[in-house]
Amino acid sequence: MSDTLSKIEKRTAYILILPAVFLVFSIILFPIFANVWISFKEVGLKDIRIPEPRAKKIVKSIKDNPDQLKVIYKLRNSSLILEIRDVKFQDKLPKNIKPINLDERCRVKSNKIYCEFGNWEAKYRENFQILLKSSDGKKLNKKELKTIEPKLTGKSDNILLNTNFTLKNFKKVFFQNEFFDLLSTTFYYTFFGTIGSIVFGILTAQLVNQKFFGRTFMRSVLLFPYVGPVVALAYTWELLLDPYSGTLNNLLINFQVIQEPLNLLGQKYLTINFFGFDLKLRLALTTVIIFEIWRYFPLAFLFILARLQAVPKELYEAAEVDGAGPLQKFINITLPQITAVISILFMIRFIWNFNKFEDIFLLTGGASGTRTLPINVYEQGFTISDIGMGSAVSIVIVALLLIFMFVYFKLIGKRADEN
Amino acid sequence: MKTKSLIYYALISSIFLFSLVSIWKILVTLQGIELKNFNFLIIITLGIAISLLNLLLGEKLNYLIKSTFFALIFVFVDGYLVQEMPIWYNIGIFGILIFFSLKINKYNQKYLASEHSSQIVVFDFLTLFGIVLFSFVILFPFYMMLITSFKTQAALLINPLDFSINFNQDFTELFKSYFVIFDTYKFGRYILISTFVSVGTVIVTLVFAIPAAYAVARLNFFGKNFLSTSILIIYMFPAIVLVIPLYTVFSQLGLRNSVGGLLIVYTATTLPVAIYMLQGYFKSIPKELEEAAIMDKLNWFGIIIKIILPLSIPAISSVALYVFMIAWNEFLFSLMFLDNPNSFTLSRAIQYLSGDAETPRQYLMAGSVVVTIPVLLIFVYFEKYLVSGLTAGSVKG
Q1: Which domains, and CATH codes, for chain A?
Q2: Averaged pLDDT for residues B245-250
Q3: How far apart are CA A9 and CA A95, in angstroms?
Q4: Is the pLDDT assigned to residue A49 strictly greater than 80?
Q5: Residue A362 pLDDT
Q6: Residues of B in contact with A236 (CB under 8 A)
Q7: What is residue B195's predicted lDDT score, i.e. its pLDDT?
Q8: What was the pLDDT predicted at B297?
Q9: Most CB within 10 Å of its CB: which of A126, B76, B81, B186?
Q10: Interface check A247 vs B, CB under 8 A
Q11: Using an 8 Å Cβ cutoff, are A360 and A372 in contact?
Q12: Smallest Cα–Cα separation from A152: which of A72, A77, A80, A218?
């Protein structure tokens, strides 16, 4: 009895999860594996269109002979690079119409014309014509003839499905793509973005955890950058930071903080003279990181605040009795209480920042030293139109992510063991 | 009274005062009024003087009289420094000073003599400073977005610092950018598409996620643990590594430029987090209720509809809102999959608009306001659901 029950339970469970698993598999897991496949191929953006045989139908009346009509099919192979094999053609005729002097590749069967055109090489074109005659002496209806669309089919190679593999893409990724520059930019961006958002998250959480007028309002406001649409926020920042008509530069110049406008998003390096040393700051990258921090510290804030509110008040009261000041309370009570959340946050944010695409893409498009790995995927795939290269870079990202996750789960597992 | 506390108190309070006054000055400058100097030293000195005077006077004076007195001194000196300012500028300064004086009123000589007083003073002012600064830094871009959408190209170029809006002009003139984006750039259509995609994603995601989450939370089956860890792992995988294969497959299937294709992708990418959040909640529902239902010979469909759903309205709403926001804000897939202006979502439409260097930026900002306002309204109105759902779903991990 219980055996059948557990069987029913199992079956029910599979029925319930199957749709979700199927969808996630086909849209998320399948592409990740497909990336591996594509990354070993030389595929350009233009190669992925499947070649199609096409026909444009033109109907013409013949001057001296009102009983007859001429139909011209402009046939062509849509692809510029691939041939189509066994092209078959089919068109329907209205009932009272019969073709005369039909091309030898074609035959008529119950009001339908069937043709076999054989193989079309790339860029193939032909003007194929048929003469039509009324079979019962009635007037020919040009319009009716025009509205019927011919059907064409053909076989072609799908460049994605053949088994020619190459290591070229990976060679290019590692040796011709300024790979280490890419990697260091990505890590720089990820690391400082993560640290910054956590630091500001701690500060703001500590702030909101106190009682003051307008506290709930403040909590909502702090989350605005996180919930706002990235497109709107990025363009607003772009406007704010514009070197000539941007508000920030004009304000700074107005209050004589700087003399010349700074191109915060378009300048790769800013040289700062620091006690006689010339320090080179990666200006655009720093700006992008600041935007990143501005947009994502709310998440850290939310997590840390939730944790802070769960810290028992007695701890603070006891510390007060022991004569601890605010700083000691923060260091000895608050910080130890939130380290767990911070380490989780660090990993999550690190992984997500590592993958961040939209923010940089919208602000700088990857120019002025802000090219990270995700930006490079887009550039390779869609700007340079090399799908294979784009996939290869994706694979590098996935591999690095798997390493991060391995470390993450190892650490979490360790923590669980300790507790 | 300790000297250290005294120095800390005087310095940090005057720096706080300076930052308040400076933010006010920035806002005033943005009304097109010429103001070139923060007068750092003078205002700091004045701040120190006021805070010390506050200690000296102590409780000899009524605090209201004291505050008014400080405010008047400050307004007088400041008015002398920056001449020919409109009266509302001075009123603002007066208000800031009243606020400041009320804040420092609680510090007296006895207070500063107590243990840790220097630290407490620093913490108090840092809190105030933080509140003001963070509000300013966060709200400013939103403020700028809104104001720019009401300006004209010419006005923006003549004086980029003039954020004042002329309310005397015609209604149609004031909202011109909005009329243009709705008339010329078909934003009405994009709003509809975005709404359709987002709401559709929410519905489809819930339909898929609720049964799956129920199964993960309650039923025993082979591969359950594997499934629940893989949900988390999959959630970590970024959209950017999916883009190329999906693009190629969607191109070959003719799903690009279709709202349906976008809906499928959005659903798949939000499913893992939806399942994760829901199963956490379902686990907290007492099992006895379902056992009773099984006695009543309800099948799983009945259990989900009659017991689980009514009990988990809060969790479901927070998942729904969260998914809605993700779908509404999503940009990467809409950039990849849509290149026909007839099927753009709002985000994609704004990006398309910005691609043309000729597009006046007030149109861009009007579009940004249109895409931002719905999410912010939803967020402010349903904040409780969203925040509780988010933190409950995520902190446990």
Answers
A1: 51-156 (2.60.40.290), 177-385 (1.10.3720.10)
A2: 87
A3: 61
A4: no
A5: 92
A6: 141-142, 144-145, 365, 368
A7: 93
A8: 75
A9: B186
A10: yes
A11: yes
A12: A77
pTM above 0.90, yes or no: no
For A352, residues 6+ apart whose C-beta sits below 8 A from its C-beta are A296, B236, B238
Take residue A326 and report the two structure tokens written for it: 């605010």
Q: What is the rounded distance in angstroms from the CA atom of residue B316 to the CA atom of residue B218?
A: 17
Helix (H) or strand (E) holding A55: strand A53-61
Per CB-CB distance under 8 Å, the chain A contacts of B361 are 239
Q: How far apart are CA A17 and CA A219, in angstroms?
A: 37
How far is B382 from B322, CA to CA, in rounded Å?
10
pLDDT for A418 beyond 60: no
| Structure tokens, A159 | 């460049």
The rounded distance, in Å, linking the Cα atoms of B67 and B61 is: 10
In the predicted structure, residue B299 carries a pLDDT above the cut 90:
no
CB A199 within 8 A of CB B343: no
Q: Which residue of A has its CA nearest to B300?
A: A12
* Strand arrangement of the beta sheet that strand A106-109 belongs to: A106-109, A112-120, A84-92, A151-156
**Residue at token pair 């920030």:** A248
Chain A residues closer than 8 Å to B364 by CB: 235, 239
Q: Which of the residues B127, B194, B248 would you substitute to probe the A interface, choosing the one with the greatest number of A C-beta atoms within 10 Å? A: B248
Of A32, A232, A362, the CB nearest to B145: A232
CB contact under 8 A, A352 and B390: no
Sign (positive/negative) of CA torsion B193, B349, B340, A48? negative
Question: Which residue is listed with tokens 């209480």?
Answer: A337
**Nearest residue on chain B to A18, judged by CA atoms?**
B212
Q: What tens digit of pLDDT does each residue of A79-127 get? A: 777 778 888 888 887 777 777 777 778 888 777 888 888 887 878 888 8
Residue A230 contacts B where some CB pair is shorter than 8 Å: yes
Alpha-carbon distance B192 to nearest alpha carbon in chain A (angstroms): 17
Residue bearing the bigger pLDDT, B346 or A321: B346
Q: What is the pLDDT of residues A144-180, one digit of tens each?
A: 777 788 888 877 777 777 777 778 888 888 887 788 8
- CA-nearest residue to A303 within chain B is B391
Please report residues of B whose CB lies closer than 8 A to that of A43.
Answer: 248
pLDDT digit string, tens, across residues B113-125: 777 777 888 888 8
Q: A326 and B119 in contact (C-beta within 8 Å)?
A: yes
Select the residue of B130, B145, B212 nearest A203 (Cβ to Cβ).
Answer: B130
CB B201 within 8 A of CB A365: no
Inspect the interface and report whether the beta carbons of B244 and A227 lie closer than 8 Å: no
Mean pLDDT calculated for residue range A236-253? 87
Angle at B24 (CA atoms; ends B22, B30), nearest 5 degrees: 105
d(CA B77, CA A201): 39
Mean pLDDT, rounded, for A216-242? 90
